[in-house]
Amino acid sequence: MKNTKSVAELLETVNTSFLTDAEKYEAIARAERAEYIVAGISSAVQAVKNVAIKLKSAFVSSSAQHA
After folding, report:
1. Sequence-distant (≥ 6) Cβ neighbours of residue 23 within 8 angstroms
2. What does the CA dihedral 61, 63, 64, 67 come to, rounded to 10 degrees?
């Protein structure tokens, strides 16, 4: 089982008593922003990969038909 937690959830378990509330909120906001960017890039890479697989299968099957 894959146990995943967001960075914001992980930051809540860290001792932040030395930080102000504004600094805590800023750290959480930055972490959420980074997660969103990574998720977007990952989604784009997956989409490109799926298109490449479809194109490859289209070219391989069409060339095999002519052989």
Report:
1. 16
2. 160
